[in-house]
Structures are given as C-alpha cells and as structure tokens.
Amino acid sequence: MRTNERILERIEDAERDLPFCEQCGRPTTVAERERTLFLECPTVDEPRSLLSSILRLDFASLHTNRLIAELPAA
Predict the structure, then answer these.
(1) Rounded distance, CA 28 to CA 64, Å?
(2) pLDDT for the residue 11
C-alpha cells in the first residue's frame, strides 16, 4: 500500500509543478506506457509532418514529457 501512496504523491507533485506544457500551454496529462508513468502534453503522440513541424517550430521533443514513476510488477 505504501508504494501506491508514494506513486500517487509523485503524480500529484508532478501535476502541481508542471500543470501546462512548456511548449504549447495545453494542460498536461498522466500517461502510462510499458509500466511507466509520464506527465506529458496531450499533443506528444499527435502525428506531425516534417514540413509542418519546421514551419511552426513544433517538434514533439519540445513538448512536456516528464518521467513520474516506474510501476512495480504485479
């Protein structure tokens, strides 16, 4: 149970520290991929064409994508 409490605290701290994407200003969300939690911009996974990215200087790597915690095995 303590592990769950620590993970919840880390999620809350991350959301409090970085509520908005540093690149575009959209509210950040918690995402889980391969038993790892990230605080990220919801646009990170949106498809971008190379030309569009260059013209708008909008590269996925510039958007918020912060590691929160790795989840323990069940």
Answers:
(1) 8
(2) 94
